[in-house]
Each structure stands twice: as C-alpha cells, then as structure tokens.
Amino acid sequence: MERVYIGLGSNLADPQQQLRGALQALAELSQSNLAAVSSLYASDPLGPADQPRYVNAVAALDTSLAPLALLDALQCIELAQGRERKAKRWGPRTLDLDMLLFGDRLIDEPRLKVPHYHMQARAFVLYPLAEIAPAELVLADGRRLTDLLAACPFSGLERLSSDSVTVAVTNVTCG
C-alpha cells in the first residue's frame, strides 16, 4: 500500500455535498483505504472570476492500485457526480479530483504528472495537505512541505466548520 494525497474541489451543485459524495466513493474504492481527510476550505476560483467560490479539501488514501488505475477511478467518480470535461481550463465544475502525491514516486505520463503541477502555488492545496500529512513531509522531487507553505500565503482561503466533513452514502460504480 502506498499513501496517495488527493485534492478535492467543487464549486457547483452543492459543493460541500459533492465533496462528501467523493469522499464516500474514495472510501469504497477497492484495494484502498481512506486514511484521513482535511477540513473543508472555501477559496477564490483560479481563472475566470465570474464563477462561484470553490470548496476544497485533501484526502489521504492508502492504496495498492497502480497510478493510472487510480486516475481512472478518480475520473469515474468525477463523471458519476456530473463532471463535464471541457477544453477550457479552470472553469466551474461539480467535482475535481487531483492526485497530488503518490507515495515517493515521480510520475511523468501524458495523462498524469505527480507531484501535481503548480501545487506549490495553491494555498487551497497546501494548507489542507498540511493538516493531514506528516510535518516533515518531503515531496518526491525533494521539496519540503514546510518550505512550500512558507512561500504560499493563506490569503484567499476560509476554513469552513470542521464538522462539515461527514461522509454521505453514494452509489458510484466504476468499471
């Protein structure tokens, strides 16, 4: 089993419920165990400003799935929750699941880059990650989480109630 950190985000169709549904689906993934979940955070959108604020979190998943198999499962969860993939990046969406870290692996595949690109500049990724990751976490590329946090201000984030991360039951079937 390897520890994988997954970023979750939503700004459409009841974002907190979207994240709870995604967390339940992650908890039900085969060959995997949902180990930890950060608080929920509200954040300003990247890209077009004429969209609702996002709700974000990070989950720790222990899995024996291969990276691309896990990516397929994450995309299946997104689709089951109404995600529509469009050519335009950073637009509104029901659910976005991003593999941030996959154990101590560096992955550079056409479909998957890990550590996740630009995570060092995204407070809505780093602060929830820091809640559930070991304080001394070093990314596979050698960067320390503490150094990334020091260079990325908390601005634009709002930590939501800690009791808002309860998992709801969903019916997601992924091939």
Can you walk through the features of this model?
Catalyzes the transfer of pyrophosphate from adenosine triphosphate (ATP) to 6-hydroxymethyl-7,8-dihydropterin, an enzymatic step in folate biosynthesis pathway. Keywords: ATP-binding, Folate biosynthesis, Kinase, Nucleotide-binding, Transferase. By secondary structure, the protein is of the alpha+beta class. 35% of the residues are buried. The protein has one domain: Alpha-Beta Plaits (2-Layer Sandwich). A hairpin with a 4-residue loop joins strand 6 and strand 7. The protein contains four helices and eight strands. The protein is globular and about 40 Å long. The strands form two sheets. Strands 1, 2, 3, 4, 5 and 8 form a six-stranded antiparallel β-sheet that branches. Strands 6-7 form a two-stranded antiparallel ribbon.
Number of strand segments = 8
Percent of residues in helical segments?
10-25%
Mean pLDDT: 89
Rg estimate, integer Å = 15 Å
Q: CATH top level? A: Alpha Beta
Question: What general outline do the C-alpha atoms trace?
Answer: globular
How many strands, which pairing sense, and closed or not: the largest β-sheet?
6 strands, antiparallel
CATH architectural category: 2-Layer Sandwich
Task: Name the CATH superfamily classification.
Answer: 7,8-Dihydro-6-hydroxymethylpterin-pyrophosphokinase HPPK
Helix/sheet category:
alpha+beta
Number of domains: 1
Distance between the termini: 21 Å
Enzyme class: transferase
Pathway: Cofactor biosynthesis; tetrahydrofolate biosynthesis; 2-amino-4-hydroxy-6-hydroxymethyl-7,8-dihydropteridine diphosphate from 7,8-dihydroneopterin triphosphate: step 4/4
InterPro entries: Hppk, Hppk_sf
GO molecular function: 2-amino-4-hydroxy-6-hydroxymethyldihydropteridine diphosphokinase activity; ATP binding; kinase activity
